[in-house]
Amino acid sequence: MEGIKFNKIGVSFKGSGSYVPDQILTNQKISQKVDTSDEWIKTRTGISERRISGLGCNVTDMGYEAALNAIAMANWDIKTVDLIILATSTPHDLFGSAPSIQHKLGAYNAVAFDLTAACSGFLFALITASQFLKGGSFKRAVVIGADQLSSFVDWNDRRSCILFGDGAGAIAIEATNEFDNVIGFEMKTDGERGSFLNLPFKNDKDSIIDNIDFLRGGFSPIQMNGQEVYKFAVKEVPIILKKLFKTTNYSSERVDWLVLHQANQRILDSVGDKLKIPREKILSNLEKYGNTSAATIPLMIDEAIRNNKIKQHDIIATSGFGAGLSWGAALIKWG
Question: Which domains are present in the chain?
Answer without folding.
Answer: 10-179 (3.40.47.10), 183-193+222-333 (3.40.47.10)
